[in-house]
Design brief:
The chain is built from 18 helices and no strands. It is mostly helical and 348 residues long. Bound molecules: magnesium ion (MG).
Length: 348
């Protein structure tokens, strides 16, 4: 009952996309599809469905306790990987909607782009990459795809459309997605982290707004809010009516300048990054421990080995999935001797 009407709801949305969106948009009814056949939803398009699958997956919830820049920050107002992801999605959706591109696809790619990030941000990623370099190394964008294709749902993956996986895989600067929606996310990621990392560094007292070189703030603006607004406007105005997503030369150069400024003054600042050596040590120790004690992995990961996955790959996946807190607690549990209960001795 009502099946025809319900089916019409999705089809009507698909028709609406063709009436409203730019000719350069990715249309849901022309998706390149999923690896495994799936019955379509009666009311949601395939891209809406992908967004929902990502939002409801476990890897998405773990982002709340993964480092963005500052390791396990105690202050409530620092970004985590989850709030960074939501900021990327918001910037990206604003741009997609303004350009009449597919907002659902943009949101799905945004929410999925960092699912494969390790605990402890790029310090954790570098550590895992170093350990696994003889086996192809580790990078978070490839791991994000691995999460949605394999690791979620106990090895079944989320069976997402090819456009979403392409956008997730190619969100890094050195790569380029096939769709304009993916290109929006690739730029929105940079906009979000450059601006919010500056904001968090000011919050931490590492830099102050007036330290940022004037030639950069003259172009981009002199507050986080103004910079975000100006960059988003610049992208929209420079991409309107084009089959590309681009910035003006001035803004692009200033964004690069701001990124270089961050590298020189925040990412490598001893106050912010003083703990990195410890992260490397922790990741190395956990890796070594689980390579030799696979029986201590969780049932889900023991299952992957039983199904034929290599021990090295499985231990790498296990560590990559951890949140900061989970990794620290596990390390303490395994590596630090437990103190004896003084009370029980006193009572003897
Ligand atoms: Mg990101």
């Amino acid at each position: 009952m009502g099946n025809d009407n319900s089916a019409n709801l999705r089809q009507r949305q698909e028709e609406r996309e063709h009436m409203m969106l730019s000719k350069y948009a990715s249309f849901a009814d022309r998706t390149l599809g999923r690896d495994k056949d799936d019955i379509q939803c009666d009311i949601r398009t395939d891209f809406q469905r992908d967004r929902d699958r990502i939002l409801h997956c476990k890897a998405f919830r773990r982002l709340k306790d993964k480092t963005q820049v500052f390791l396990s920050p105690e202050g409530d107002h620092y970004r985590t990987r989850l709030t960074h992801t939501l900021e990327v999605a918001q910037n990206a959706r604003t741009i997609a909607r303004a350009l009449y591109l597919n907002e659902d696809l943009t949101e799905a790619i945004s929410l999925g782009h960092d699912l494969g990030h390790t605990p402890f941000g790029h310090a954790g990623e570098r550590a895992l990459n170093k350990i696994t370099k003889d086996r192809g190394g580790f990078s978070h964008n490839e791991q994000s795809v691995r999460v949605v294709e394999i690791l979620e749902k106990g090895g079944r993956g989320l069976n997402l459309t090819r456009e979403v996986r392409d956008g997730i895989l190619n969100h890094k600067s050195a790569l380029m997605p096939d769709t304009l929606e993916g290109k929006i996310v690739r730029l929105s990621d940079k906009i979000a982290y450059v601006n919010s990392d500056i904001d968090d560094a000011i919050r931490a007292g590492i830099i102050s707004e007036s330290d940022i070189p004037k030639e950069l703030t003259d172009v981009l603006g002199d507050s986080t809010k103004r910079r975000l607004n100006n960059i988003v406007h610049d992208i929209v105005h420079n991409s309107e009516g084009k089959n590309d997503i681009c910035m003006s030369e001035d803004v692009e150069q200033s964004m690069k300048g701001l990124r270089n400024y961050l590298f020189a003054n925040v990412y490598t600042n001893p106050t912010a990054k003083g703990e990195e050596r410890k992260v490397e040590h922790l990741v190395e120790q956990l890796y070594d421990y689980f390579i030799h004690h696979t029986e201590k992995l969780t049932d889900e990961f023991i299952g992957f080995i039983r199904e034929g996955e290599s021990i090295e790959r499985t231990v790498c996946d296990f560590i990559a999935c951890m949140s900061d807190r989970y990794a620290i607690n596990l390390y303490k549990d395994i590596m630090i001797p437990k103190s004896w209960s003084v009370k029980s001795i006193e009572h003897r």
